[in-house]
Design a protein that fits this description.
Layout (H helix, E strand, L loop, with lengths): L6 H11 L5 H4 L3 H13 L21 E2 L3 H14 L13 H4 L7 E2 L8 E5 L2 E2 L12 E5 H10 L4 E2 L48
Length: 206
């Protein structure tokens, strides 16, 4: 589980250690977590593109869902076959499928079907802290659409809040400018360690 700290504490700790503050450090502050939670709550905890909610994981990092009707029927068919039952009617005439219509067994969701919610910046301003953007500059996206947007679109980068002058930067080849690697969402929300979440090569502090 990630450990969040106040931004001022981060500044003090980095100063005492003589270390550089990376973008990934900023994403582990209370300020960003609070801003992120506010945006996701505003968007009703759904991706604004696909409308999916985040997958809820248990303490073992697994997720489950209720079975579909087809899965229930397949389960019952397997049970009847195993018990060598030829008829779907019981002795008293009750239909097995109706009898087990409320049958519940959890179906594990494969990892590649997990949905993780990210907060996307619709534009960037050089040296601006990630939580200092107005709310209308931030939207909730699932990790798949977040990656797709950065892959297919050039996100504007401006020099200041006036947004009068933009600059062209080179996106990170590893994450395609999203700052995340979906396959590693289970750790540090999938932050890209090639660019440390900075998204653009010119902004990366080595």
């Amino acid at each position: 589980m990630e450990k969040f700290i106040p931004y001022q504490t981060l500044l003090q700790e980095k100063k005492e250690k003589g270390e550089i503050i990376y973008y990934i450090d900023l994403l582990l502050t209370f300020e960003w977590r609070n801003k992120r939670d506010t945006i996701i709550a505003r968007d009703k905890k759904r991706c604004t593109s696909c409308k999916n909610e985040a997958t809820i994981l248990d303490r073992f990092g697994k997720a489950f869902r209720p079975p579909t009707k087809e899965e229930k029927r397949e389960y019952i068919d397997g049970f009847l076959k195993e018990m060598n039952v030829k008829e779907t009617k019981s002795i008293n005439g009750a239909d097995f499928y109706n009898f087990y219509k409320d049958l519940y067994f959890p179906v594990e969701i494969p990892f590649d079907e997990f949905i993780f919610l990210h907060v996307h910046h619709t534009y960037y301003i050089i040296d601006k802290l990630p939580w200092d953007y107005p709310q209308d500059a931030l939207i909730t996206l699932c990790h798949k659409f977040h990656k797709e947007i950065h892959l297919n679109n050039q996100i504007p980068v401006y020099l200041d809040d006036d947004k009068s002058e933009s600059i062209k930067l080179t996106v990170c080849n590893k994450c395609n400018g999203s700052g995340y690697i979906p396959e590693y969402n289970y750790y540090m929300n999938g932050i890209c360690f090639d660019c440390n979440g900075y998204k653009y090569n010119e902004l990366v502090i080595r």
